[in-house]
Amino acid sequence: MSSWRSLLKGDPVPWLLERSDPAVRALTLRHVLDRGPRDAELREARQDAMSSPPISTILKRQRPEGAWPGPDLKQWNASKYKGTHWSNLLLVEYGADPTDPRVRRGARWILDALGDPKASGLDWIFGRDHGVSCFAGSVVRYVAAAGYGSDPRLEPLVQRLVRESKEYDAACYINGDQPCAWGYARLVWGLAALPETARPREVQRTLRRGVEFLLSYKVERGRYPTDTAPSYLWRQISFPLFYQADILFVLRALDAAGAIDDDRAQPAIGWLLARQDARGRWGGRAPYAARMPSRVDASKWVTLQACTILKHAFPEIAA
Questions:
Q1: Which CATH number fits domain 4-313: 1.10.287, 1.50.10, 1.10.10, 3.40.50?
Q2: If we measure between CA atoms, which residue out of 94, 71, 43 comes closest to residue 294?
C-alpha cells in the first residue's frame, strides 16, 4: 500500500514545517503528521503560533470585553475584515488554541449578542425569515470551535440554519433569492463543528441536505443557482475567505462533514490535484489581504488544506 503522498509531484511537508510560520507548522504536525496533543514539538509550535502573527496580531487588538474595534454587528460589512465577527472567524481558520481565554472570550461575546439580536445589531439577520446562511454558519463554526457548541445561546442560530435549509433551500436575497452555494458550504462547515450531543436528527438531516446540494452540481464547475454569473473566486484557490467559497473551501466543508469520500467529489479533487506545481505545492491567493489585520502566505495555507483533504480522501492507495 502507498499513501496519498504518491499523488504529489514533490514533498511540501518540510516547507510547511518551517519555523517561520508557526501556525502552519502546528497544523501540519497535527493534521498531516498526526502528532498527538502531548507531542513536545506540537506543543511548542502551538505556543509559538499563539504569540506570533497572524494570531497574535488579532489577539492584541481585542478589547477586554471580548469584542474587537470597529463598527458593531449591525454594520458587519463596514468592519471587513477586522471587526469582531471576522476576527473570530480568522482565529479558528488560523488554528488558534480554543482553550485560550481570549479566544473563548471572543466567542462568548458573540453568544451574548445572539441573546439580544436587536440590541446587538443582529436583527438584520433575525429580522428576516431567511438568508445569509454564510454568516450564520461561520458563527456556529467558531463558537463551537471555542467549546460552546452545546451552549443554549447558540441554539436559535442552529435552528435558523435548519429552517433555512428545510424551508428555503438556503436561498438568499443577495443571490437573487436562489439557493446559495456559499451559504450551503458554510452551513455545512458550521454544523459539522457541533459536538455529537448537539446534533439531533434534524441537524444531521440538515447536514446531509447541505452535502447533497453541494454534490448535486459539478463542484469543479461551480454552476450553482445564481441570478448573476458565477463568482470569479470559484476556480481560484484562496485563503482566507470570509463569507465566500471556492472549490477548495467546498472540499474542506465536505471533509468536515465526513463526505470527502463520496464519488461525486472525485472530479473536484482531480481538479485540485492538477493545480499543484512540480514541488507538490499549490499557489494560493489572498484576495482580501489589504483589508486584513495581518498578511499570510496563502500558498502555504492552501497547500496545508489540500494535503489534509487528500490525506482524508485517500488514506491508503493500492500500490
A1: 1.50.10
A2: 94
